[in-house]
From TrEMBL, chains A, B:
Annotated InterPro entries: Glutathione-S-Trfase_C-like (IPR010987), Glutathione-S-Trfase_C_sf (IPR036282), Glutathione_S-Trfase (IPR040079), Glutathione_S-Trfase_N (IPR004045), GST_C (IPR004046), Thioredoxin-like_sf (IPR036249)
Keyword set includes Membrane: no
Protein name from the UniProt record: Glutathione S-transferase
Domain GST N-terminal: 1-76
GO molecular function, one term: transferase activity
Domain GST C-terminal as annotated: residue spans: 78-194
Pfam families found in the cross-reference section: GST_C, GST_N_3
UniProt KW keywords: Transferase
Length: 194, 194
């Protein structure tokens, strides 16, 4: 789904790993989305889904990242750092995405407009600033979310954070450590934009 | 947090592994919760958090499950099955918990009552039934969510599913495969109730 941060995460990791993939776009309202649903190729009804060569379908963006990232520089060798990476990735799906990405969706997708009430947008702005603050606080003393190098935690949280201003209407000025971190991700060799 | 399914998941895994742990209860409104927040011992502001012997704090229930479960019977040996286990765990945090657990929270926690409007409860009932249907469909042909044995995917999804009727107001009668699976989890040696 070209407009989706969850899909972009996977494209970004594949680009950083210089690994080719065949993609089928399933944007909202497209025939390909209707067809993918009819063929039950979206096990949880959502994109992205990774289809392996043997036909196995793997849903959930962050599970796809772990599958594709295993044994690469983006998964720490240390078991505790792996668990810390997963903490950020679960937090991203449980807290960050449900606020930062949802505010962007309400503001940008025509089919979500009805839910974009001033009260809901204000509530999401306040919660979202709290979440961005958690990231900024954590990044004040370190370059990457976990350990000394970029990991899947950074890639997964970059997806919806780097569009928080343009799409979500958040102001990142109060979060300088977060902004520097966004620049570091964008400088990774092989980086592709959304 | 004794009332929380996310905390219960961790207690359940530790009981199944017969692994002792010292717990500090941080129920809503308790002094221990206020104190834990003041001492910044809840990195993302939520329970549960696992504190290791060296003081490292690991938040996010499903990341704690992965950390404690590594090398045990609850993590499949096969890398693809591990990724499939994570798919269910990310789905649990991104979809299932935000609907099934949230409906239970609105109905049971006094501080959430104001959000428990009839419209919101009806909307969560419809979405929740869709999510329970995905699980029931998947479990019709198999005993466990991934592979041939119980995994962290089953434990994490059991937590809020087994209280969906009593706390969330869902009717599980239309989901026979799901109900059989709940019985299988409850029959695991060492099982403890919430």
């Amino acid at each position: 789904m070209p407009s989706s941060g969850n899909s972009y995460k996977v494209r970004l990791l594949l680009a950083l790993l210089d690994q080719p993939v065949q993609t089928i776009d399933v944007e909202y309202g497209s025939d390909t989305l209707t067809q993918a649903k009819a063929e039950t190729r979206l096990p949880f009804g959502k994109a992205p889904v990774l289809e392996l060569d043997d036909g196995t379908l793997l849903p959930e963006s962050n599970a796809i990242l772990v599958w594709l990232g295993q044994g690469t520089r983006f998964v720490p060798k240390d078991a505790l750092q792996q668990a810390q990476m997963l903490s950020w990735m679960f937090w991203e799906q449980n807290q960050h995405e449900g606020v930062i990405a949802v505010r962007a969706a309400l503001l940008n997708y025509p089919h979500r407009k009805a839910q974009a009430t001033p009260e809901r947008l204000a509530e999401l702005l306040t919660s979202g600033n709290g979440l961005l603050q958690i990231m900024d606080d954590h990044l004040r003393m370190r370059d990457w979310l976990v350990g000394d190098d970029a990991s899947l935690a950074d890639l997964c949280l970059y997806a919806y954070t780097h569009t928080a201003e343009a799409r979500g209407g958040f102001d990142l000025a109060p979060f300088p450590a977060l902004r520097d971190w966004l620049d570091r991700v964008a400088a990774l060799p092989g980086y592709v934009a959304l």
